[in-house]
Design goal:
The protein has a two-stranded antiparallel ribbon. The chain contains eight helices and two strands; from the N terminus they run H-H-H-H-H-H-H-H-E-E. The protein is flat and about 45 Å long. It has 145 residues and is mainly alpha-helical.
Length: 145
């Protein structure tokens, strides 16, 4: 990363943090409700790079899973997995594995969403029994309602 890119990233981060700080408590609570996260998680999300979490749809595609279909079937699960992905410390390794075509074989070694991503199952059967990253088991219909 060159100096100009580093400065632009820093300025962008500072602007996002300042915008969040300018909100009062009610506005922060409303924002958190709108995006489905606890209010105390907002500063954590703001601190992340805007590209954080973009590996999840790519990984799901590598596992022959359709992220949008799953989002329609179980939006809360996708939100939880996206939040987990955006805070992941193995993002560099994940991106490398995705670009080299190794992610489907290796993601279980480092991905915090590995339990929720059932590899090898037929697509229509994948999300009947899931484990949300926080450990709550859910049953999901394999067809859209």
């Amino acid at each position: 990363m060159d100096l100009g890119t580093a400065i632009n990233r820093w300025a962008s981060h500072w602007k996002r943090a300042h915008e969040l700080d300018s909100l009062d408590r009610e506005q922060k609570d409303a924002l958190a409700r709108d995006i489905g996260v606890p209010a105390d998680m907002l500063p954590i999300l703001v601190a992340r790079d805007p590209a954080a979490g973009q590996e999840l749809p790519r990984l799901m595609s590598a596992l022959s899973l359709d992220a949008e279909d799953i989002r329609h079937i179980h939006a809360a699960l996708m939100r939880d997995m996206s939040l987990t992905c955006s805070g992941c410390t193995a993002a560099v390794r994940c991106r490398e594995d995705l670009s080299q075509g190794h992610a489907s074989a290796r993601y279980g070694e480092y991905c915090p969403n590995a339990e929720a991503l059932p590899a090898g199952a037929p697509r229509q059967e994948c999300f009947k029994h899931l484990r949300i990253p926080r450990g709550r088991e859910v049953l999901v219909s394999s067809q859209k309602e």
